[in-house]
Amino acid sequence: MATTVTSVQVNLREMASGVVKRAVELGASAAEAVVSEGSEFSTVVRLGEVETLKESGARALGVRVFVGQHAANTSTSDLSPEGVEQLVRAAIELAKITSEDPMGGIPAPEQLGQIDGDLGLYFDDVYSLSNEERIDHARRAERAALAVDPRLTNSEGGTFDASIGRKVLANSHGFIGEYRSSYCSISAVPIASDEAGNMQRDYWYSVARTLAKLESPEEVGRIAAERTLRRLGARKLKTQKVPIVFDRQTAAALLDHIFDAVNGDAIYRHASFLAGKLGQKPFGANLTVIDDGTIAGGFGTRPFDGEGVPTRRTTVIENGELKSYLLNTYTAKKLGLATTGNAARGLAGTPGIGNGNFYLQPGAKSQQEIIKGVKQGLLVTEFLGFGVNLVTGDFSRGASGMWIENGELAYPVEEITVAGNLAEMFSNLAEIGNDLIWRGSIACPTLRIEGMTIAGE
Amino acid sequence: MDKRFFFEKYGLSERDLEKYLGAALAAGGDYADLYFEYLTSTSLSVDESMVKSASQGISAGCGVRVVTGERTGYAYTDDLAPEKIMHAARTAALIASGPAKTPVVSLKDKARPKLYPVTNAASDADLSKKVELVFRADKAARAYDSRIKEVRASYADELRRILVIGSDGTFAEDVQPLSRMSVFVIARDGEVSTKGSSGGGGRNKFEIFLTEKTPERFANEAARQAILQLSAVPCPAGEMEVVLGPGWPGVLLHEAIGHGLEADFNRKKTSAFSGLLGKRVASDKCTVVDNGTLNERRGSLNVDDEGNTTNNTMLIEKGILKGYMADKLSARLMGLPNTGNGRRESYEHIPMPRMTNTYMLSGDDLPEDIIKSVKRGLYAVNFAGGQVDITNGKFVFAASEAYLIEDGKITAPVKDATLIGNGPDVLTRVSMVGNDLQLDEGIGTCGKDGQSVPVGVGIPTLKIDRMTVGGTGSAD
Q1: How far is B398 from chain A (nearest CA, A)?
Q2: Which CATH code, of 3.30.2290.10, 3.40.50.10470, 3.20.20.120, 3.30.420.40, is assigned to B5-95?
Q3: pTM strictly above 0.80
Q4: What's the ipTM?
């Protein structure tokens, strides 16, 4: 059958509530729809020449239905009336094969809502630049990096990216909410070679919700160059136990594992080493961890979560005591607790758990002071691989960084692993830095941890 | 199979395609292509012995690419109305600035291999049969041992239809089925909790889950690993002899050398393997291929995402670097053969050189002799994945099931640990190669530049004379 395809003009709010209404008409006892649209631009400039230029927009729709206590969900990029009807019917049909789950359902009406006012998530300036200006940002970042030192001989490029998005959520309790968001970023990835021809690569980037807060391409390039150059001549280390300092990037990666461990999905399945530890003190008194989805302009901020529950500030760990897990409606019911407004929902699938702005409360010392206090040890600046077992907390990842000798950075190191157990590592925080900076939705100051094993030669 | 799927569903004609390619090349360029994709997917899982939810999705769109020299312009649309495709073509064309070129449009579909079933593919099976699979896995895992406390088993399948039209006359359609099962379990004994996981699949008929790759097989394997881990000792730390078991530990090849042999990194000279063609990069016992032509394998493709048939490509022959994996762009710019390795995650993505099924051929050694030859080392048989830094060649992979080898005998199981090495020299330290090549079960997904594609890996039992093992225990 040949058909004529015409472009679909839609009002996202009407579409979301229309889908919910249709699902209820077709027999759903509860339904929830999410519609998203977004545009993205990206460019890579390599060795001064444009390598890629990409620009596009997309829209899609997802629906979750409950027929009695049977759940199912469907998603589509076909937003034509026939496509939408098919989506809803498929969801209702699919619910016939799923089990009755007494804990299933959307949030209760009184739990729904959203934070009012401008949360500073959207700035249209990220899309205000001409293509030439965008390319120029990427070019300047790379040029600034390569200009720092003649040993910087190659590059994976400089980039400029921008994206804007809009998300609408509606459910059968009458909730409807929407928000827009924007991002822009610049990065540079220079490559340095030493006399022997050994190459090292590193990167730096800046990301912001508005061009006004983006670091200059020159600053990004300069830092990328410094990070790359300091890796030249890297050595291996002997296998040993010494104090390890994690810089902000690698410390945030460690804190990300703590987020995974307090994720309600892992908790109710006993798939986390923190399951059953609520109210206990598994960590040292100097550890406080907060999740806050309400910080204006934050990378993890949104007015409501993936189920239409207002986001909030949750103290997760306070002075070493596990105060709260991070939960959505389902995991809260399973644990006999209340949702913390951490539902995360893509278009497809069941809502999971997402963080807001998740951070470790900073301490008093600068990174420099922390390094000064280490006689012999390691500053880790990059991880390689994903060797973490959340069930046991066992941690073993590839690493590179700088050797510390008498409080000074001595030489670069690579091809080593650092290993320990997350529960013990976060109980042995010898120092916590004062240098908390938001470069994503998870942030952590510099940390010094005792008792971990470095494996090398 | 319904040929001309896109023509019928979206009312495309030869003239439309010419028009779009013409718009893409309106400002010149060496090459342009259109990539149409229509993907349907189903997934469901059992959790706490309930199928708590099930998902189905449809994703369709068209990506337009314009290549001029080393530059690529790209735009896509998920709305297949003519004016939207035309807009994408005009956007992609912004990369070029010259006189218009005229594309060669051919609707001649060349003969292609038939590596996988397109009727009776797994996605065609009744939902109730898929549900039965996950329940069977749940039951088997719980029956394995009373210490198995949590079981999650999932099933997922998809059917991807693609159509690639290139300005060089490329015309290729393919229908690519893909399915997999996976089982994840947690065992608990007193205060100790451990996990185990297993799974597999491919581009196969649904029946394979009833005959060969059964739910019970994956469930028993996941449960076995979790129970074994209950008695695991800390993994030693430091350099030691490492023996890799056959099959999935082929992740080593994928990370250590596979990515480094993708042509884009070598064209840009950013790989630790740049300029080593014809040179020794492995011991003479090592022969490694990338083979996209194996029947029903997860990494196999009749045609890649640029419309080229895939190949069995020799990468390393008896230790000598013989070839790179190339896509159209790198083949043209480097004067290399196009090996049919141009892949992309979806219509939203620019294709680039990617692996298919990458494995080492069998050698002459008996696996038991390999173990016997090790005085003190690690025998690693299961891995949780890895990562590589292409530029300096450092790679890691995380062992999820490994044992100590003491005086030629396999002894205590050890806890999870990451192994780290240097790509260009790890294979030069391979001193024994078993006669037992196995490919993995069909569960691998590879990520590069934010794009995920299904891949396969494999090795025979291998002995590596020296590698750094990242445990917490004492090495002596």
Answers
A1: 5
A2: 3.30.2290.10
A3: yes
A4: 0.92
